[in-house]
Amino acid sequence: MSGGELGVSELIRQRLTKLCREVGAADMAYCIDVRCHSDFFASQSKLHRRWQQRKQVFFSSVNLSQCFDSWRSNCLASDRNFNRSHHHSVYDWHYSPESPDSARAINIIHNHGYSRVSSFSVPCPFSGRYVARFVIIDDPICRDRDNPLLFSALEHFHIQSVLDFGESINPLLDLHLVSPMAQQVLKLFSLGCSRLEVSEGCNITERGVDYHVDALKRLFGAANMPELMYQACTQRLI
What we know:
By secondary structure, this protein is an alpha+beta fold.
């Protein structure tokens, strides 16, 4: 299968595998996330539910993907490391064997052949609302937490991924903060369509168009359509 025929997940998996070799990690996961969860989610439980449904999380191996799926199903809501890691640019995941919740996570991690889990958050140069999240497994080279080569490699990986795959890995869509219909409304307005034309193009009423526009304005804090379209472009929705 040629590179042009490969799906986004497979292409990113290949790049992650190469990145693992470069930094000396056993395995690696990557996704784009919203930088500040409290801007979008009223509660941790809502955040957890949305993360349970995420599809655009990418892995360097099938084994790590299966480990993540098992951890997400059994531990995400109770694992304090998940929330803590989002507040640090570098974070080592710690578990206490005495805690039943930790013991469950430890078993999942060890059953997949892993021992050390670290996470890295890299700012997104395209939008201040986004951050690249990396989870690196068994990373001897990463013990130097100030290693500029590591952060440079992660940042380069993220920039190239956004440039190549754009909206396919957009967290606002993956976290269901923006619906596919709302994105289509934005795209048609960006092409210069009128309200009526957007309505016909999306097969919804004009009031339906207004509903999506108003919801998007609230999400982005946009006061008018030009500001909304600017935000949509900045967030790489169009």
